[in-house]
Design a protein that fits this description.
By secondary structure, the protein is α+β, with helices and mostly antiparallel strands. Helix content is about 55%, strand content about 15%. It has one domain (about 5-60): Arc Repressor Mutant, subunit A.
């Protein structure tokens, strides 16, 4: 059985959820995504962020 933390890596979060996770503003998360600094994909007109990518970004900033 996999660890619960590994299961979260496949989750796709909204920009608001990603902002809470990273403790940044939602606007700044969108800016980082548009600049290509924070990987994301779109679902319709909405961005989604993988938890694994958010974790990698957070860890790179420590």
């Amino acid at each position: 059985m996999s660890a619960p933390d590994n299961d979260l890596a496949d989750l796709a979060l909204t920009s608001g959820q990603a902002a809470v996770y990273l403790q940044l503003s939602q606007r700044w998360v969108g800016t980082l995504a548009r600049r290509g600094v924070l990987p994301s994909h779109t679902v319709g007109r909405h961005r989604r962020f993988q938890v694994a990518d958010l974790r990698a970004y957070r860890d790179s900033r420590r």
